[in-house]
Amino acid sequence: MMADEAGRAGHGSGSRTGAVSLEFRGVTKRYGHSAQARGAVNDLSLEVPAGAICVLVGPSGCGKTTSLKMVNRLIEPTAGQILLDGVNVLTEDVTELRRRIGYVIQHVGLFPHLTVGRNVAVVPALVGWSKERQLARADELLSLVGLDPAGYRSRYPFQLSGGERQRVGVARALAADPPLMLMDEPFAAVDPIVRERLQDEFLRLQRDLAKTILFVTHDIDEAIKMGDLIAVMEEGGRLAQFGPPDEILAHPASDFVARFVGADRGLKRLSLVTIADLELAPIAASAPPGLPTFSPSTKLRDALSVLLAADSRGGVALDEEGQPCGFVTVDAIASALAEDRQPAATRSGGVTRQGATGVGAAAGDDS
Amino acid sequence: MDLIGATAAWLSDPAHWQGANGIPSRLFEHVALSGGSLALATLVALPLGLWIGHTGRISWLVVTSANAWRALPSFAVIGLLVPFTTVLDANLGFTLYPTLVAMVVLAGPPILVNAYQGVADVDTDLVEAARAMGMKERQILLGVEMPIALPVLATGIRSAAVQVIATATLGSAFGFGGLGRFIVLGDANKDNGELFGGVVLVAALALTTLGLFLLLERRLVSAGLARRTAG
Fold it and tell me: What span, in angstroms and rounded, lies between the C-alpha atoms of A289 and B230?
């Protein structure tokens, strides 16, 4: 859970390898004299606690990528401050700063002339690690992102699929164990199925790594899935709303945000809640056999979909051991939307996310 | 005597393979002059081209003038230089210098333009990724842009090398040695065997050089760029 991760990361932040807090304080970027220019940013202020994933989302040209690139100073702000653990990035040596910040982009930017292993070890090599340590680290990270080091370390980028390249990109960004990662549409260039898998795997990794992550996307569904916090930006580089996903979905701050999150925001909210979060009714003795069953990690959105598809008003919730433990009804799911949920309560970590694929498959079997 | 027979006879005559005017010493002159001017041209044009490609500065000026420069006929350049280079050195001015300077001047532009183009064409996302990882500008140029631009860059040096070998032949008309000497003398003596023997030698040297450069490129260019499987 976010609060726990932030707390845990807080202990390690002195060592530089934990996570850092990130704050935008009145950050403005103007291009020319127009405040409306594409990519401009207007007085952006937000705070991301250490260990949290903050997603910048908005239509193209809203300044989200500009905001991200101002953190590692690929773009310099016109005004304002960006603070990492309270230290203004503009006061730091730019090369040192960048070597402490992981960076993943849409087209990955793997170096075509270097092997996968050497691509991953770029930053360790820059900061002067020994050859053996670089190799060991590259292998470790390839394993971490699910690529067998023996099979992959000597390959070149052109020999990888899009999804594999993206994994190597993530491994490379993690190589020097940076406390902050910047990810600019990292999963946009792969097909939806691979994207979903990469997202799930990344969230699972993040549970252990607890990095502070600034993540840019134009896809609101990705923002809801990935973000502990979501910053919705609108044209002109203004922050339209900043908060946890459920808050953005439940209470859009403006017409723009409501339109941006979409008319199905109620259903989207249901994907933030799992069966485990629901208060279950006891199973009636008269319940007919053959009702749909749900694991604790099933998202309510998927559960609702299964119930509607099965034309059933209720289903059976199973516990971790697969034993029936309660009764789930369409009404109970609907009432979950009435509550205002705290992020810590709704984001039950990777269990939710791991379950997502399983339930998807189950729903497929039903239809 | 027919041409091929005469040429073969001239080439196979052991007398032509020894002494200060023999084929080996002319070949050495030719290679030394070509190699020297190619090295000089590379020394000037390569860093300049890389720098312009990396920064994008004054690229329009340099590329335009380099291309205009390429249109100059080598023969004219050598001839035009003679009056100036005799001032430098009365003895060598008529022999070595005009050809050397002309060759440097002619070899420079293809090296410069290709170095510029190769670096300028490297994907900007890639360069930005390198910068974002904390590479310094020099590290980006030498560690990312140059290796990726290597095939284009090598093409420039390779075509300059072949051009320089051809141009060194022309130098003989202005008093310099080299393999062109056989062509000049053969023509003057109405000795077709010597004339075409010289032609064959120059052609063989140019092709050998081309082959050596291609081999070297194959070794130097990353398998990841050539899209060859490693091994």
Answer: 60
The answer, as to whether pTM is greater than 0.90, is no
Q: Looking at the domain assignment, is residue B8 inside a domain?
A: no
A30-33 contacts: CB < 8 A, separation 24 or more? Answer: A30/A78
pLDDT, residue B229, reads 64
Q: pLDDT tens-digit profile of B108-159?
A: 999 999 999 999 999 999 999 999 999 999 999 999 999 999 999 999 999 9
* Subunit contact B132:A99, Cβ cutoff 8 A: no
Position B10 in a domain: no
Residue B217 one-letter amino acid: E
Record: contact A103-B129, CB cut-off 8 A: yes
How many whole angstroms separate alpha carbon B132 and alpha carbon B129?
5
Residues of chain B contacting residue A65, judged by C-beta atoms under 8 Å apart:
none
Is the ipTM value over 0.85, yes or no?
A: no
Which of A113, A153, A180 has the highest number of chain B CBs within 10 A, making it the mutation to test binding with B?
Answer: A113
For B41, the domain range is 27-230
Q: Does residue B16 fall inside a structural domain?
A: no
**With an 8 Å Cβ cutoff, is A95 touching chain B?**
yes
Structural domain count of chain B: 1
A39: left (phi over 0), alpha (psi -120 to 50) or beta: left
**A298: which residues sit within 8 A by CB, 6+ positions away?**
A274, A275, A355, A359
CATH number reported for the structural domain that contains residue B141 in this entry: 1.10.3720.10
Note whether residue B151 is domain-resident. Answer: yes
**A104-146 pLDDT per residue, tens:** 988 778 999 999 999 999 999 999 999 999 999 999 999 999 8
